[in-house]
C-alpha cells in the first residue's frame, strides 16, 4: 500500500517547542490503520502512558506499544531514512496487535460493535486532534501549549478524514467535540442534538452531523474514560443511538457511490 505524502510529512514534522511533548515519543498518526478503517473514534491526544510507565520511563521490549526514539535508534525524524519513517507508521497500524491499552480503548467496544466495527479486525481505528502525547495531560497543559498543538496538528486530522475511507466518526467528550467544530468551521453540518439521562452522574448530550458531505459524525459530551459516574449502560446506549444515526447515512452513501465500503 502506497503511503501518501501527507502521512510521511506528518511523521517527519518535529513537535512545537514548549508543548510538553513526551521526550523520546513519536507522533501517533492513528491507533490502528486509518487506511482500512470505516469507523474511527476521536479524542484530544494520546496518553503519555502509550510511551512511558507511570514513573515516566520509556517502555521497552515487549512492553513497548509504539515507536520511540530508542526503538528506532535515532531522535530526529526530519531527515530519517524511509525505513525508519515506515516503522513509525507500521507501529501505529499494528497497535492493536501489539500491546494495546485495553483499559482505555475497551470503553468503546460496545459502541463500535453496535456500528459493525472493531479495532481488532481493522474496521475501526482511533484518531486524535493532536498526534503528540504530552506530559502533563491535556487538561493540565499551559494554554499556550494547547494552542500550539491544536494549531499545528488539526490540519492532519482534516487530511485524514478527507482522504481515507472513514465514514463514521465517534467523538468522545465535550472538549474533543468543541475542538473538532473549531477545526472544521464551515465544513461540519450539525443535524441533531438530544439529551441522554440516567446513564451517568450528569446528563449526556448527543450531537450528530456530517463532515465533508461524506463522514457521519456522532459526538457525546461525557468522556467515557474520565467523566464522573459513568454507568456501564452509557456505552450501550450510545452504541444504539450511533448505529441508528449511522445506518441511514451509510445507506445514502451507498446509493450515491453505487457501492459500499
Question: What descriptive keywords fit this protein?
Answer:
single chain, 261 residues, alpha/beta, six-stranded mixed β-sheet, 9 helices
Summarize the structure.
This protein has 261 residues and is α/β, with parallel strands linked by helices. The chain is 36% helix and 15% strand. The protein has a 6-stranded mixed beta sheet with strand order 2-1-3-6-5-4, with helices on both faces.
Describe this structure in words.
By secondary structure, the chain is of the alpha/beta class. It contains nine helices and six strands. Strand 4 and strand 5 form a beta hairpin. It is globular. The C terminus is likely disordered.
Helices and strands, with pairings:
Elements lengths: L4 H8 L26 E5 L25 H4 L9 H12 L1 H4 L3 H4 L3 H6 L9 E5 L14 H21 L4 E5 L1 H10 L4 E9 L7 E8 L3 E6 L12 H25 L4
Parallel strand pairs: 1-2, 1-3, 3-6
Antiparallel strand pairs: 4-5, 5-6
Helix pairs in contact: 1-3
